Structure formats: C-alpha cells, structure tokens
Amino acid sequence: MSFTDKINSLMARPGQEVPKDDVPWWLRYGGRTVGTLAGFLAIFLGVLNCVSIITADVKCLISGLWQMVLGFTTLCIEAPCCCLFVDFVQNLSDWMDKRPYWNKAVAYVALSIPAIILCPSLSSIFGSGLILVTGVIYGMMALGKKATAEDMRASATDEAFPQAPKSVTAMRSNLVENAQPISFTGAPISDSHV
C-alpha cells in the first residue's frame, strides 16, 4: 500500500470504501488541482465577460454567465471545501466522485464549449479552456493504465503475423452443433457374391 493510499484510508469516513483504481496519484491530484484552479479562473474571467454588456454584446454576457455557473459547478465538484456555505455541495461532490471518470470528462468538455463558441475572446478561451483541459485529464484517467512493454510487443507481433487457421482433421469435428457423425459401414453385401 502506497503512502497516499494510507493517507486516503485515514481520511475516509467510517464505513466508506477506499476506491482502488489504477490511476496514478499525480494524475488524480492533478485533475483536482486543475479543476479547482479552472473553477476560480472561470468565475473571475466570466465576470470580465459580463462587463461587455457595456458595449451591448449580449452573446458575451451570456457566455460570461455560462462561464461563471460552470466555474462554480466545477468548484463544487472538485473542491467542495471552497463552497461550505452551500448545503448541497457535499452531496453533489460525493455523487460525482462515485461516477466513472469518463462521465466527468464528457460533462466538462461538453459544458465548456458553448462559452467559447458564444464569445471567442481570451477570457472565454482561458476560463472555459481550463475546464476543457480538466475534462481531457479525466478522459485520460478513464482510459486507464498503459499496458506493459511485453504486452504491447506481444500484441504487435500478433497483428503483424496473424496465426494461420488451424486445419481441422478430426473425423468428429462438426460445423453445426448437434450434427450426427458420419459413420462408414462399408459397401452393402449382395447375394450374388455369396
């Protein structure tokens, strides 16, 4: 058991199972860190997008509002300790932690794109772009651990030199299940030969 697994088991609630997955610790904590920073930055840059209402740019206002809501949601999921004043945050964070990594990846990527499309300014690209990067990190976590070098060599060898089909020489091999075997009893004996 690694050091981080021991720390996680000590910090777990009583009766809570510690998840055992093959994701490296640096990728798991990196996803949380990038998600937390992306949430703060998305909220701040979303406010800057909303200031564009002065120039009557409604699309950037909608993009800024979308980005601020997405940033707050990302903070609630990735760092619930930053939003202790909201009652449902811990429940939302626990529910998302029980979901597979690919669910978070799809959600972050799909929800970050509209703000960039509505107002392709630097504040939208950086704010929602970091949330998109968080989705990409969770997508890499969903792919799982890379195979060993020996496994990859064996797979490459199997693809390069496929096995020839095995010849079937057994008399009792059937193409169809429950087929009756062919029996050889010889030529019928006629009365003229007797």
TrEMBL record:
<feature type="transmembrane region" description="Helical">
    <location>
        <begin position="34"/>
        <end position="56"/>
    </location>
</feature>
<dbReference type="Pfam" id="PF10233">
    <property type="entry name" value="Cg6151-P"/>
</dbReference>
<dbReference type="GO" id="GO:0005262">
    <property type="term" value="F:calcium channel activity"/>
</dbReference>
<keyword id="KW-0106">Calcium</keyword>
<keyword id="KW-0966">Cell projection</keyword>
<dbReference type="GO" id="GO:0030672">
    <property type="term" value="C:synaptic vesicle membrane"/>
</dbReference>
<keyword id="KW-0109">Calcium transport</keyword>
<keyword id="KW-0107">Calcium channel</keyword>
<dbReference type="GO" id="GO:0006897">
    <property type="term" value="P:endocytosis"/>
</dbReference>
<feature type="transmembrane region" description="Helical">
    <location>
        <begin position="68"/>
        <end position="89"/>
    </location>
</feature>
<keyword id="KW-0472">Membrane</keyword>
<comment type="subunit">
    <text>Homomultimer. Associates with the dally/ magu complex.</text>
</comment>
<keyword id="KW-1133">Transmembrane helix</keyword>
<dbReference type="GO" id="GO:0042734">
    <property type="term" value="C:presynaptic membrane"/>
</dbReference>
<keyword id="KW-0407">Ion channel</keyword>
<keyword id="KW-0968">Cytoplasmic vesicle</keyword>
<dbReference type="InterPro" id="IPR019365">
    <property type="entry name" value="TVP18/Ca-channel_flower"/>
</dbReference>
<keyword id="KW-0813">Transport</keyword>
<comment type="similarity">
    <text>Belongs to the calcium channel flower family.</text>
</comment>
<feature type="transmembrane region" description="Helical">
    <location>
        <begin position="124"/>
        <end position="143"/>
    </location>
</feature>
<dbReference type="GO" id="GO:0005768">
    <property type="term" value="C:endosome"/>
</dbReference>
<keyword id="KW-0254">Endocytosis</keyword>
<keyword id="KW-0812">Transmembrane</keyword>
<protein>
    <recommendedName>
        <fullName>Calcium channel flower</fullName>
    </recommendedName>
</protein>
<keyword id="KW-0406">Ion transport</keyword>
<feature type="transmembrane region" description="Helical">
    <location>
        <begin position="101"/>
        <end position="118"/>
    </location>
</feature>
<keyword id="KW-0967">Endosome</keyword>
